[in-house]
Write a structure and sequence with these properties.
Length: 492
């Protein structure tokens, strides 16, 4: 057969819209099974929220996660299949159309170093052609968020490091970065090849169905060993403690140079979004579009919507937060926030710092307010925002102490903070609130209004004021400088 650019582009378009809103059924099944095994109520509740989020995203056709990622496209063919030189020439047009029509977030910049302005189309897509021995033509499409990719790693180990050295590097990476990648995770591991190829091995490993057999019994045994040791770390769902830090570890190996032991670790978040399309079947069928994945919903998922949370443990707070209210909060407490918060991320923090340095005060009435690290998707499903969830908070550590000293009293994000941020909370009587990553469709139901205040040129990173009713979060750093993440680590 001969593949065409038109066929590839049409399947990429269809796959994007499906992947963005429908969790892979194997991942959803694994989350449901993990929930049964969790003993702690907090970990169990996080997994219930992930299930509920999948239900909302699928039924309302809104993104599972606000970070709808970069688009990775891999065309996998045998050596007898004819491919024209322009096979990917229409992919960027398909991506731009899908992201616009699907109300997805545009996250791609023109140049990583010299022009960090948004392309406003989420292009270019990152495409590759891979030749395999097995007969056929398959198209893989993955939407990969920044948080999970940033938590990944490539290391050129010395050969003497061996199996134990590989295991140590993986466990160290999980300890340091899992909280930022929205656990429970699927972890792709690549071992071998060369510096430029080993990361590809790890990324391809994420495509494998959770629970499917490894290439060899030896690989399967190593995967099981790694999974057991990762889950013994006690990091758990949303890094709030528990068993299910990872749902699966998938390992791919390859030949390498005698002087090398390349290792790549690619984190896949709980909102794992990928699709594989058999183009031989798609080309011959009248409608070869990806079949919508079933969403597993049971009697427990309906009870975890934050808008209906009536837990006696949750404390209802009215924003903006007073110093007296802040002083009475302790780490681990669940809170429900109602009132105004302001969204601000990396670029916004740079601008706020610049304004502070020039004017000596915070802009736009931010004094005494709470900042939510979020880059939402556009309005959808009759809501002000389609999806909105927490961004990796540590990326804002460079600016947080100065902004807290100037008057910001609280922040909402995901993952660990630096010692400087902890000290700033103690010094200013402020707090850091953690939010579960990977439930952006669910959290969007807790946003009543959204208004752009400034920096509209930043797109999703513009400064916005959101009005929240009963928005769920957990106190992660309190005014005494106690840190929930560190105490969970020390207890395991």
């Amino acid at each position: 057969m001969q593949l065409t650019a038109e066929l590839v582009a049409s399947k990429v378009y269809e796959a994007i819209l499906e992947c963005a809103t429908t969790l892979r059924p194997d991942v959803l099944k694994a989350i449901s099974e993990a929930r049964i095994d969790e003993a702690g109520p907090q970990a169990k509740n996080v997994l219930c929220q992930l299930i509920r989020n999948a239900e909302i995203a699928s039924s309302d056709r809104v993104p599972l996660c606000q970070d709808t990622g970069t688009v990775w496209v891999c065309l996998e063919i045998d050596e007898e299949t004819c491919v024209p030189g322009n096979i990917f020439s229409l992919v960027d047009d398909a991506v731009a159309q899908a992201y616009e029509e699907g109300r997805l977030r545009m996250s791609v910049l023109n140049d990583a170093l010299f022009d960090r302005t948004n392309t406003s189309t989420n292009t270019p897509a990152f495409c590759e052609l891979k030749f395999v021995k097995k007969r056929g033509a398959k198209l893989h499409v993955m939407l990969k968020g920044g948080g999970s990719d940033n938590a990944s790693r490539v290391v050129m180990l010395p050969p003497g490091a061996g199996r134990e050295g590989i295991k140590k590097e993986i466990l160290d990476c999980v300890r340091e970065k899992a909280a930022n990648a929205c656990p429970p995770l699927i972890i792709g591991i690549g071992v071998g090849a060369t510096f430029d190829k080993v990361a590809g091995l790890a990324k391809h490993a994420l495509l494998r169905e959770v629970g499917s057999p490894a290439a060899t019994s030896e690989t399967a045994a190593f995967e099981a060993e790694l999974l057991a040791e990762i889950n013994a770390l006690g990091i758990g769902p949303a890094a709030l403690g528990g068993i299910a830090t990872a749902l699966a570890v998938h390992v791919e190996t390859a030949p390498c140079h005698i002087a090398a032991l390349p290792l790549a670790i690619n984190m896949g978040c709980s909102a794992m979004r990928s699709a594989t399309i058999d183009l031989l079947e798609a080309d011959s069928a009248e409608d070869g579009s990806p079949t919508p994945s079933p969403v597993i919903v049971d009697e427990m998922s309906a009870a975890v919507a934050p808008s209906s949370a009536e837990s006696s443990e949750a404390i209802r707070l009215t924003l903006p937060l007073s110093k007296e209210t802040l002083a009475n909060l302790s780490i681990g407490q669940e809170v429900l926030l109602s009132g105004p918060v302001f969204t601000m991320r990396d670029a916004g923090h740079e601008r706020a710092l610049s304004y502070l340095e020039k004017e000596g005060e915070l802009p736009f009435g931010l004094d005494g307010q709470t900042i939510f690290y979020a880059g939402p998707t556009p309005a959808a499903a009759n809501r002000p925002l389609g999806s909105v969830g927490p961004t990796t908070a540590s990326r804002m550590d460079f600016a947080t102490p100065a902004l807290m000293d100037a008057g910001i009293v609280a922040h909402i994000g995901k993952g660990k903070r630096s010692s400087q941020v902890i000290e700033a909370c103690k010094r200013n009587g402020g707090i850091y609130l953690a939010c579960v990553g990977g439930i952006a469709a669910l959290l969007a139901t807790c946003v009543q209004e959204a208004e752009t205040i400034a920096w509209d040129d930043l797109g999703t990173e513009a400064l916005r004021r959101l009005t929240l009713p009963d928005f769920p979060a957990i106190v992660a750093i309190d005014t005494n400088g106690r840190d929930l993440y560190r105490e969970i680590e020390q207890s395991n």
